[in-house]
């Protein structure tokens, strides 16, 4: 639905290539060089192992396609992405849990360090891992006023890994990130705009896509090399810790997820969602 809208709206997506895996649709406008990556995993685009693998593989594909920019959005009503699939954390198989965590680390690195500019069109709620995906893009346009975004991990009784936290610090600064992270605060669109968690707030998805394309058009006159070098210099401190500590990060998450206290919290949180 959204893909069709994008094609009609811009009226320039004539020479486009379209690829659809079941949970992810990608479109490339060959004229503009802009790709759209649309998440479509009902009911809430929760990130399980298979979905993460698809996202990671599509990002690699875009690298080969040499696109000029990318819009990340959702085809679901009211939800951008509900974060990691919590059912994966409830009584997990340690082997699969490790695989999810590693795949998420790699997907994040691929998204955070893309060689092309990226825009998150946040057309619905975006908690936890959904917020991380959005924060990893170069620019965020959020549809308002009724959706929420934030890193709410403490509300589940779990700890957002250092790279989640550092990514938030890079976007909104140390003090605001510390309060947001410790309280697990979810922000409305207007609040998110106010603290700089998103760059623009618009009333509907049509406007959001247009704003995203406008942002990407800024790069028409920017050297891709200068863009990428500048982004790498800015983002290097945030990624370096993860690159140097992947196993340590994984061990901490797996060990804490398996602990009885965390399992109890996750169980209660899942129950509250079902209610
Ligand atoms: C090495 C380290 C790497 C890994 C890092 C691990 C450490 C960090 C850990 C976690 C990060 C996360 O991302 S945890 C996920 C946190 N997400 C949330 O808290 C979102 C919870 N969901 C909601 O708030 C709401 O569902 C919603 C606002 C997203 C949508 O609300 P709505 O009313 O529209 O829909 P429902 O609430 O009725 O939900 C429908 C349906 O979906 C199920 N659901 C929702 N969210 C999730 C989820 N994240 N994972 C799995 N399932 C989810 C919900 O239970 C409903 O199911 P049923 O229809 O069966 O009842």
UniProtKB/TrEMBL annotation:
GO terms for biological process: fatty acid beta-oxidation. It catalyses: (3Z)-decenoyl-CoA = (2E)-decenoyl-CoA; (3Z)-dodecenoyl-CoA = (2E)-dodecenoyl-CoA; (3Z)-octenoyl-CoA = (2E)-octenoyl-CoA; (2E)-tetradecenoyl-CoA = (3Z)-tetradecenoyl-CoA. GO terms for cellular component: mitochondrial matrix. GO terms for molecular function: delta(3)-delta(2)-enoyl-CoA isomerase activity. It holds the Pfam family ECH_1. Pathway: Lipid metabolism; fatty acid beta-oxidation. Keywords: Acetylation, Fatty acid metabolism, Isomerase, Lipid metabolism, Mitochondrion, Transit peptide. InterPro entries: ClpP/crotonase-like_dom_sf, Enoyl-CoA_hyd/isom_CS, Enoyl-CoA_hydra/iso. It is found in: Mitochondrion matrix. Homotrimer. Key enzyme of fatty acid beta-oxidation. Able to isomerize both 3-cis (3Z) and 3-trans (3E) double bonds into the 2-trans (2E) form in a range of enoyl-CoA species, with a preference for (3Z)-enoyl-CoAs over (3E)-enoyl-CoAs. The catalytic efficiency of this enzyme is not affected by the fatty acyl chain length. Belongs to the enoyl-CoA hydratase/isomerase family. This is Enoyl-CoA delta isomerase 1, mitochondrial. The lineage of its organism: Eukaryota, Metazoa, Ecdysozoa, Arthropoda, Hexapoda.
């Amino acid at each position: 639905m959204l893909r069709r809208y994008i094609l009609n709206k811009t009226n320039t997506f004539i020479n486009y290539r379209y690829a659809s895996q079941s949970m992810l649709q990608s479109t490339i406008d060959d004229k503009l060089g802009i790709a759209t990556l649309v998440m479509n995993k009902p009911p809430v685009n929760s990130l399980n192992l298979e979905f993460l693998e698809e996202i990671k593989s599509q990002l690699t594909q875009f690298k080969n396609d040499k696109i000029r920019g990318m819009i990340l959005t959702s085809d679901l009503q009211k939800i951008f992405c509900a974060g990691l699939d919590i059912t994966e954390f409830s009584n997990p198989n340690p082997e699969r849990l490790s695989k999810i965590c590693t795949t998420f680390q790699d997907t994040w690195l691929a998204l955070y360090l893309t060689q092309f500019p990226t825009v998150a069109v946040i057309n619905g709620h975006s908690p936890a891992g959904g917020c991380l995906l959005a924060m990893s893009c170069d620019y965020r346009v959020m549809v308002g006023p009724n959706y929420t975004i934030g890193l709410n991990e403490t509300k589940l009784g779990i700890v957002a890994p250092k790279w989640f936290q550092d990514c938030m610090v890079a976007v909104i600064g140390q003090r605001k990130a510390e309060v947001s992270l410790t309280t697990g605060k979810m922000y409305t669109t207007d609040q998110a705009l106010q603290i700089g968690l998103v760059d623009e707030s618009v009333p509907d998805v049509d406007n959001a896509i247009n704003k995203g394309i406008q942002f990407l058009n800024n790069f028409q006159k920017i050297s891709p090399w200068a863009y990428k070098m500048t982004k790498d210099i800015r983002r290097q401190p945030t990624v370096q810790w993860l690159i140097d500590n992947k196993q340590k990060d994984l061990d901490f998450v797996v060990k804490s997820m398996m602990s009885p206290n965390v399992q109890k919290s996750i169980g209660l949180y899942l129950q509250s969602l079902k209610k």
